[in-house]
Amino acid sequence: MSEPIKVDIWSDVQCPWCYIGKRKFEAGAAEFDGDVEVEYHSFELSPDTPVEFEGTPMDYLAQRRGLPLEQVEEMLARVTGIAESVGLDYDYDHVHQTNTVISHELLHFAKAHGRQLEMKERLLKAYFINGEHVGRIPDLVEIAVDLGYDRAEVTEALESHRYLADVKADVALAQEYGIQGVPFFVIDGKYGVSGAQEAATFANVLEQVRSEKEAV
Amino acid sequence: MDAVTLPIPIVGLQPLGDAAADACDGDSCLIPDHHEQAVINRRLDDNAV
């Protein structure tokens, strides 16, 4: 039996293509006849965004890009449609644009407990589907408690920023790799796959990597 | 830090997959050009342009 193929994924909680790409990657990994070991890494698309951003994601994009609100709404409607095609019900009317650094700290907290993948899914769902705030410590604590974590432990971890250095290390590693956009998949430490690829593409890439590993 | 599980950076990852796949780049997540063109095509089909 061959050893699992390691896939390191750089992603941000408020990245619509990351959630869509997650679903497509999962479908591709399911098609692939082999074991895959996934580890998520932090990437901050907008590290300067305030936790309490006054406005919607539409406002945010319009302000940042100088685009007419109507054009931004049309763009997000299209992303919502693409998300729906992979079974995700994005609700941009209730999304809280925010700074995601503490949610990344929570992901590292969960990783330290061996439950990173579960937390990643929960945070993406919180942001895009549930309309939950993923930038404030009290909201993130409730999400963690909802998953069964100890309230006092997770509160202490987030308030002390115990995992902030891990978040920054992930971001630095992304810079070393030259990663500029997410989702970004590093497969077997050697191959780079950028973006929300189709499921079949992910399956083919995994097969190719396995073949090359076995040929060595 | 869980350094043991971090991959070792290798300068110049070998790219695989579709280089035009959708991704968030920079401070926001815009729709790539091919989606814009798809929408324009659809609007043309709908006689909306």
Which helices and strands appear, and what pairs or packs with what?
The complex is a heterodimer of chains A (216) and B (49).
Chain A: E1 5-11, H1 16-31, E2 36-42, H2 57-65, H3 69-85, H4 101-112, H5 116-130, H6 137-146, H7 151-159, H8 164-177, E3 181-182, E4 184-187, E5 191-194, H9 199-215
Parallel strand pairs in A: 1-2
Antiparallel strand pairs in A: 1-4, 4-5
Helix pairs in contact in A: 1-9, 2-3, 4-5, 6-7
Chain B: E1 14-15, E2 24-25, H1 33-45
Q: How would you explain this protein's 3D organization?
A:
The complex is a heterodimer of chains A (216) and B (49). Chain A is of the alpha+beta class. Chain A has one domain: Glutaredoxin, CATH 3.40.30.10. Chain A contains nine helices and five strands, in the order βαβαααααααβββα. Chain A has helices at 16-31, 57-65, 69-85, 101-112, 116-130, 137-146, 151-159, 164-177, 199-215, and strands spanning 5-11, 36-42, 181-182, 184-187, 191-194. Chain A has a four-stranded mixed sheet. In chain A, helix 1 links the parallel strand 1 and strand 2 (36-42). In chain A, helix 1 (16-31) crosses helix 9 (199-215), helix 2 (57-65) crosses helix 3 (69-85) and helix 4 (101-112) runs antiparallel to helix 5. The longest helix of chain A is centred in the middle third of the chain and has 17 residues, at 69-85. The two termini of chain A are 16 Å apart. Chain B has 49 residues and is α+β, with helices and mostly antiparallel strands. Chain B is 27% helix and 8% strand. Chain B has one helix at 33-45; strands spanning 14-15, 24-25. The longest helix of chain B is centred in the C-terminal third of the chain and has 13 residues, at 33-45. Chain B starts with 13 loop residues before the first strand and ends with a helix. The relative contact order of chain B is 0.10. Mean pLDDT of chain B is 61; it is low at 33-44. At the A-B interface, helix 1, helix 2, helix 3, helix 4 and helix 8 of A face strand 1 and strand 2 of B. Strand 3 (181-182) of chain A pairs antiparallel with strand 2 of chain B.
